[in-house]
Amino acid sequence: MRFCPPYELLxxxxxxxxxxxxxxxxxxxxxxxxxxxxxRLFLKAxxxxxxxxxxxxxxxxxxxxxxxxxxxxxxxxxxxxxxHQVPGxxxxxxxxxxxxxxxxxxxxxxxxxxxxxxxxxxxxxxxLETLSxxxxxxxxxxxxxxxxxxxxxxxxxxxxxxxxxATRG
Length: 169
Description:
46% strand
């Protein structure tokens, strides 16, 4: 399996639809990919979950950045905000807003995008769920439909990881 730029398969958990990818040049942290099934009345979705822990610098207290997406072209209008007041958080959010925005705009069909900061561990934790790279079906589709995850979206995820890694002083 290749993830752009090319990651290599590090580990595959048999039977659990979870894989780990690593950057062979060790410039970026490992990625964890898995699927989360969700059943609704008229929709069955199998969201792709991408997780990553990135060492870096940040505010002196723990916090969580969440993203809200608005409108038809929601990824172009993503709003990032701390879920609660974080001392020094506004400066960090201002510093991260543009680089994160450049990556987020490339990712389509985002269900969840959250970034946690651990001041004690000095790491950022990225959690992304998207319909891209998943399967879905519903009342009008008898067979599941594959939703592709394209190179631009992979580059967007990498851009978000690079934005978090750039905080390391």
